[in-house]
Every structure is written in structure tokens, then in C-alpha cells.
């Protein structure tokens, strides 16, 4: 599931506590990168592993946001992909687009509830929806695809006027080495198949989810992740040049001695260092971060507060020569309930509203996705089930009305 995995209070204990390019440029880039990065891609080992963790589960500001005008008439290759009504005009330049990241459960949500939730998100003023596109689920057997779950949700999102950010990741066992490294060439093939199927529907592609945690990448490996991006991003540029490509998807973390997690700053430095120099222009459009801060507010000054560290993360990008890419915040939220990780419903409201304000204040941030809309379960003691702004039964938490006021 796409949600936080480490309590920020544990982090405190550990610590002591592009603008979008023209399609022609990106198409040309595809050919040059394949040649320049071929050696890196071919170096990824193949093989099997016994399990794959994680399968349980922007762009330039304002009017330049990629994907926003993409709901146009054309021939669609899958059922349910008929054109949706045009969304309203993009926000004014410098604004931040807001959406929801509802987690993996949306793929199996009952039909009527799915359509109600998406319509409610749109009525709230949301423009974006982040949805997992699991390689492990879609291509359980090599060359055999089951797109049905994503067809349904992508079609419903389109009908609701929401722009889809597809999170492509989670390798099947047949495409994973014994060391837990996903096969980059196989991943690029899967991404190509996904882009051919969903190009008219997907406004942005996010490559993997939280690769700096062992839960989603058995042994976090920035260099291996760079090979994955090098293999997949040029394919996306060639097959879906109008869509944004987003990399990183970095979770709150510290540099663990056992290598089980890597901080966003360290991961990014190593990731950039593994790419060709000078940095290929247009390889991707944004770097995504999951700046969970609970129980602290986004603007807090705690050392471990990932939201407050966003300027430091941005500085890593600039120092690497990547001042063009934007920053997308593709998950942010806080759990209510009775667990020791929970916050009060009032504090949840304050955190989400402040996240919207802080994201709009930071000039390098172009998108914010809130995790989540609906609680994943009804047990108040399960923190992972209580990130929604509405309960599992659909009843509103105070955060819903607070967000409505903030978005107006």
C-alpha cells in the first residue's frame, strides 16, 4: 500500500532528535539515452526471489502543467476510456495543483462507492488522482497482462475529470534478482506496454514507489534505481511525450546502518551521481517526495520533519545541476484513531490545511497529493486504516470541511 511505513517519532529517536519540454526534445532524448545508458541497463541482473515487498499495496507550475488539457477525443484502446469533460483551466502560474493518493485499495473499491468518491474529490476542488499500476499484479506471468483493475479506475477517474498519476512499480518474482533488484529491461518493456495502453488517459508517470525503503526495494539501491529510470524514462518520452515523468517517490527515512532505509537527501545525491554527466536534459520532469511529518505540523522546525526539509532536498537537486525539475509531493497525511501513531481529528485538519498552504508557498513545488480520501478500514487502533478525510462508512471527519474551505 502507498502510505508511510515508519513513525516519525521513531525517526526522532534514531536521530537524537521543468518546466515541460517540447515533445520533439523528449523524443530525441529517448534515442540518445538508450545509447548513453545502455551499459548501465544491461548490468542489471535477472533471476528470481521468493517474495516481492510492496505489492500489498508537478511538472512546471500553473498553466504549464503537463497533462491538464489532455482529455481530447481520439480512439481509445480499452473499454471505459471514452473522452471525459474538459477540466477547468489550470491554476494561475505559481499555484500548486492538489489531488488525492487513495492507496492500493481503490483498485478493488465497489463500483458505486468508487464513483461517489471520485465525484466528491472533484467537487472538493481536486484535480489529480494517484493510482498504483503494479507490474507484479498486471504481469504475474511474463507476457500475460491483466489490466482490468486499472482499466476500471482509470476510466472512472477520467469520467470524473481527474488527471491520473500512474505509479508504476513492484516487480513480479520472475523479474527480480536473488538480491531483490528488479530487472530494468523488463521494467522498461512493461512501462512501454502501459504507455501504449493508457497514453491518452495518464497525465503523469511516477517511476516506482518509495525505493529508499526496503519494504518497496529489498535492499535500497540508488544506483539500481538510476538504471531503472534510465531504462524506462526514454520509453515514456517516446510513447507518451505529453505526459510528465516523475522520479524519486521518496519516503521519510534516515540513513540506517543496516541499509534498510536511506534518507531522501542521501538517496537523491547517489541517484544523480549515477546518471550521465552532464545531466541529460529532459530525462524527467519532477522529483517526488512523501513529506510525512505527523505528529508535527508541516511548518514545524523539528530536525526529522520531512516537510520542513523540502528546501534541503531541493538544494540537492540544484547542486546536481537539476534546477529545471519541479518537486511533487505525492503523499502527505496523518492517521486519526486510537493508536500511538494517531493524531486528533482536529490536528489532522490543521496538518492538511497547512500542507496545502506550505506547498503553495514553496516556489519549487507544483503538486500535492493527500493520503487519503477514505479510511481503508474501520478499526480505530490500526493507524494504516485511518488516513482518510472520511471514515470507511463515508462519514466526514473535520478535515473534509477544513480542506473545502482551504481550497476555496
From TrEMBL:
Keywords: Membrane, Transmembrane, Transmembrane helix. It comes from the Bacteria. InterPro entries: GH (IPR017853), Glycosyl_Hydrolase_39 (IPR051923). The chain crosses the membrane at residues 23-44. This is Glycoside hydrolase family 5 domain-containing protein. It comes from Nocardioides nanhaiensis.
